[in-house]
Structure formats: C-alpha cells, structure tokens
Amino acid sequence: MNAIPNIAVLGLGNVLLGDDALGPYVTATLNAAYEFSPEVSVLDAGTPGLDLIPYVAGFDALILVDTVRSEGRPGELRLYRREQLVAMPGSLRLSPHDPGLKETLEALEFQGAAPKDVLLVGVIPGQVVTGIGLSESVRRAVRQAEAEVLRELARLGFPARKRPRPEVPDLWWEASSCTS
Fold this sequence. Notes:
Oligomer: single chain
Number of helices: 6
CATH topology: Rossmann fold
Shape: globular
Strand content: 15-25%
Order of helices and strands: EHEEHEEHHEHEH
Low-confidence stretches: 92-97
Mean pLDDT: 88
CATH superfamily: HybD-like
Helix content: 25-40%
Largest sheet: 5 strands, mixed
CATH class: Alpha Beta
CATH architecture: 3-Layer(aba) Sandwich
C-alpha cells in the first residue's frame, strides 16, 4: 500500500439501461459540484464486470455506487460494508457486465492489494431496461447516495469541498438522447 492514503469512488453501471446508470450519474454530479483532495479519485467505471480488479487494486479505501438487488421499493438506499459483501453468498452472473465485487475483493485479498475500507452505496432500481434516464424514484435517491459518499469521505479524513461555482454535470448519455 502507498504511504499516502488513496481512495477510489467508483460509479458502476450501464448508462443505456435506465436505472443502471445510477453509478455514473452520481459520479458525474459529484465531480460537477465538489472538489476532492488529490488522494481521492472519483470515476465512472462503467460496466467492468469481472475486470473490476484494475479499478480497485492498491487503493486503501473504496466507495462504490451502484444499483443493487434487494428487497424493498425502488429508490431505497442500501449500504454494505466490506465484511457484509464478502460474507454474501456468490451470485449467478446474469450478464457479462454484472460486477464481480465479492470475487474482486477475495482475489485482491489473496494478492495483498485489497482496500481495507469498502462501502457500497446501493440503490434499488425501478427499471433496468434498454433506455436512457433514471426513473423518478431512483432520481430522487441520487442526493441521498451523494450524501453517503460525502459522509464516508469525511469519515476517512478526506472531506470534499463544495465548488464555489458548481459545474453542469457531464451527463453525455442524456444529452445525446435528446438530439436524436
């Protein structure tokens, strides 16, 4: 591990599958509204599937934002710590882009490159179908998800600073769907 703590905030999801775009949406809105210390990387990781290892290896802390399969209503927030994630039974991959988070953490643990702090900020999706744009219930959960990411960064000792002049989030996938 590095002497200087480094933290990855990764948004996971497919922007072409409705609510699955939550992770990229949250990282875009966070980057537009906040400034982060050099030790913090806030990235849209897309749909890396089992290739999640390069995005996670070597970081001291990891915060993921993604939709999650869970009991509850669309838009409800779920928080999972590393211990809960690795204790979950393995799940069947339903598509090639399903993140192999448990497998990634286990492989990195074996290599000695796993982050010691992990938080998954999950939101129950309403619709994961071909199409662009979040459902209303998931769109309402975006601010909650952002707040959890910011709270975790502060807990880790790297609070974000609100931009004096917030930028417009780069939601390129929504902008391109309006021009067709």
